[in-house]
Automatic annotation (TrEMBL):
InterPro entries reported for this sequence: His_synth_HisIE, HisE, PRib-ATP_PPHydrolase-like, PRib_AMP_CycHydrolase_dom, PRib_AMP_CycHydrolase_sf
PANTHER family: HISTIDINE BIOSYNTHESIS BIFUNCTIONAL PROTEIN (PTHR42945), HISTIDINE BIOSYNTHESIS BIFUNCTIONAL PROTEIN HIS7 (PTHR42945:SF1)
Pathway the protein takes part in: Amino-acid biosynthesis; L-histidine biosynthesis; L-histidine from 5-phospho-alpha-D-ribose 1-diphosphate: step 3/9; Amino-acid biosynthesis; L-histidine biosynthesis; L-histidine from 5-phospho-alpha-D-ribose 1-diphosphate: step 2/9
CDD domains: NTP-PPase_HisIE_like
Protein's UniProt name: Phosphoribosyl-AMP cyclohydrolase domain-containing protein
Organism: Dioscorea zingiberensis
Highest rank taxon of the organism: Eukaryota
Family (UniProt): In the C-terminal section; belongs to the PRA-PH family.
Keyword set, alphabetical order: Amino-acid biosynthesis, ATP-binding, Histidine biosynthesis, Hydrolase, Multifunctional enzyme, Nucleotide-binding
Residue span, Phosphoribosyl-AMP cyclohydrolase domain: 82-155
Residue stretches in coiled coil: none
Catalytic activity: 1-(5-phospho-beta-D-ribosyl)-5'-AMP + H2O = 1-(5-phospho-beta-D-ribosyl)-5-[(5-phospho-beta-D-ribosylamino)methylideneamino]imidazole-4-carboxamide; 1-(5-phospho-beta-D-ribosyl)-ATP + H2O = 1-(5-phospho-beta-D-ribosyl)-5'-AMP + diphosphate + H(+)
Length: 288
């Protein structure tokens, strides 16, 4: 069963009028309420929740300590950033503040990721699993998530540990696309090192912009050809893989991360076509 999204629906958010009403009733100064650096910490019982939010909180299968596993995931890369625990108040605070908030079992209190480091996780959506006993905060991190400075808290590969390889904070649990990006970046770093033998194809592309440009054009043409000649799915996938690889080498040359490309796509497809077109025109004509 698919996970259930929560936060994308306006009805599951605290309204501005509810927040203002709570401040007036509780005499809470504005500075004490939700802000980029100070998430809302009004006690749950004192917040006037949207009835639908209350119903969702009731639907979660909290354990005997009132907790559920809460996982933070990067909305663009899909990387698992960290895992903690949330209680009813932490989830309600996350829905309200849009900052990933957890419950600290050691301190017996709420904590918002980034409240000390300022590396907040800005939540775009929230999902519950099919059993309603675990939570995903789908968001965009402001910086490294792990206290070690690593992008995520997951960089210890069991395969590496079994082979007695040293753990590195750069060895992240990445999908195929990001593993490829890491490999291309490593080849770029190796260019200045003295090596015998013929350079790899990736290094040749990195060193020769004309060669790289011609290959991107060639692979794009071959992908289009699969459509024109009605070639089968496996051929389309193969040509798309070729184009994607060469395009990612170009991104490396231009120092652009694939995450930046995906962020642009997310922002574009969250807008209507007219809004997206107007946004492009504003960026291309900043003086207008």
């Amino acid at each position: 069963m698919a996970a259930t999204p929560l936060a994308r629906f306006p009805s599951l958010r605290f309204s501005q009028s509810d927040a203002a009403s709570s401040r007036r009733r509780l005499r809470i100064p504005v500075s004490a309420c939700s802000s980029p650096s100070r998430p809302n910490r009004v006690p749950l019982g004192e917040l006037r929740l949207d009835p639908k939010v209350d119903a969702v909180l009731d639907s979660v299968k909290w354990d005997d300590k009132g907790l559920a596993v809460a996982i933070a995931q990067n909305v663009d890369t899909g990387a698992i950033l960290m895992q903690g625990f949330a209680n009813r108040e932490a989830l309600a605070t996350t829905i309200s503040s849009r900052k990933a908030t957890f419950y600290s079992r050691s301190r017996s209190s709420l904590w918002t990721k980034g409240e000390t480091s300022m590396n907040f996780i800005n939540v775009h959506d929230i999902f519950l699993d099919c059993d309603r006993d675990s939570i995903i905060y789908l968001g965009k991190p402001d910086g490294p998530t792990c206290h070690t400075g690593s992008e995520t808290c997951y960089y210890s590969s069991v395969n590496d540990l079994l082979e007695d390889l040293q753990t590195s904070k750069d060895r992240l649990a990445t999908t195929t696309l990001y593993s490829l990006e890491t490999t291309i970046s490593r080849r770029k770093d190796e260019i200045d090192t003295t090596q015998n033998g013929k350079p790899s194809w990736t290094k040749r592309l990195l060193l020769n912009k004309e060669l790289l440009s011609s290959k991107v054009r060639e692979e794009a043409g071959e992908l289009v050809q699969t459509l024109q000649e009605n070639e089968d799915k496996s051929r389309v996938a193969s040509e798309m893989a070729d184009l994607l690889y060469h395009a990612m080498v170009l991104l490396e040359v231009k120092d652009v991360k694939i995450e930046e490309v995906l962020e642009v796509l997310r922002e574009r497809f969250s807008q209507s076509g007219v809004e997206e077109k107007n946004s492009r025109m504003r960026h291309s004509n900043p003086s207008s």
